[in-house]
């Protein structure tokens, strides 16, 4: 979910109609940006930040308006202040905040790009993507129907791949080291490993005994003990 706010800033007692008039002229020359990217989840096309900038900046600059975007990160959200400033100092601005649960540079960078793209395209009123409301609703409905009997949503492919990677890293370890690795895992990782271990395996798993212990929510026994 996103939040946005809009404001008009004046320079002293100047009439804000100047930036309004300039924006009218700029928008009359704008075209929607080229949809140059594809959303892999919904199979829909959208305009990248580069495409949005290419579509809106030339008309804005031509009529004396420049764009700035200030980004901040706090409380699991990325906020982007997009400001259109006219040559006389008057300005229009809008703030868009989007969730950013991830902490890696790539995840934060993706959220920043998303906020900048939506913030700029919405402030100047251009369409930067296909109408995917129907797709979003359909996919949400599918996720509900695919929920397990326990009420939990199915694990994503990336989560299951993580489980595979963990198994691959520990399957050839001595049993005492497997036990140590298991004890160091947090509850979420243990739950993920348990779910993976109960799925049918295409090939015999060298760590079959470990799979069985995880499936039964027990710590792997130590040989001879």
Question: How are the strands of the biggest sheet laid out side by side?
Answer: 1-6-5-4
- SS content category: alpha+beta
Any idea what the shape is? elongated
Distance between the termini: 52 Å
The unreliable regions are 201-207, 221-225
Beta-strand share of residues:
15-25%
Notes on the structure:
The protein has 225 residues and is of the alpha+beta class. It has eight helices and six strands, in the order βαββαβββαααααα. The protein starts with a strand and ends in a 10-residue tail after the last helix. The model is unreliable at 201-207 and 221-225 (pLDDT under 50). α5 (157-170) crosses α7. β4 and β5 (77-86) form a beta hairpin. The protein has helices spanning 17-29, 49-62, 105-124, 133-145, 157-170, 175-184, 187-198, 208-215, and strands at 3-9, 37-39, 44-46, 65-74, 77-86, 91-99. The protein has two domains: 3-130, no CATH class; 157-215, no CATH class.
């Amino acid at each position: 979910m996103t939040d946005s706010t809009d404001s008009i800033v004046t320079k002293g007692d100047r009439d804000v109609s100047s930036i309004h008039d300039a924006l009218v002229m700029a928008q009359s020359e704008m075209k929607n940006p080229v949809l140059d990217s594809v959303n892999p989840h919904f199979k829909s096309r959208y305009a990248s930040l580069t495409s949005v900038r290419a579509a809106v900046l030339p008309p804005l600059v031509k009529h004396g308006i420049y764009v700035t975007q200030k980004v901040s990160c706090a409380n699991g959200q990325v906020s982007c202040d997009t400001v259109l400033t006219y040559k006389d100092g008057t300005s229009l601005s809008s703030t868009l905040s989007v969730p950013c649960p991830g902490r890696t540079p790539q995840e934060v960078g993706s959220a920043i790009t998303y906020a900048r793209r939506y913030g700029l395209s919405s402030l100047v009123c251009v369409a930067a993507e296909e109408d995917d409301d129907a797709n979003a609703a359909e996919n949400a409905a599918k996720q509900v129907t695919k929920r397990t009997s326990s009420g939990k949503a199915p694990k994503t492919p990336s989560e299951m791949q993580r489980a595979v990677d963990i198994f691959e890293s520990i399957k050839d370890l001595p049993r005492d080291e497997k036990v140590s690795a298991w004890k160091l895992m947090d509850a979420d990782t243990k739950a993920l490993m348990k779910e993976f271990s109960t799925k049918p395996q295409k090939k015999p798993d060298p760590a079959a005994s470990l799979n069985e212990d995880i499936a039964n929510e027990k710590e792997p026994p130590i040989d001879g003990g």
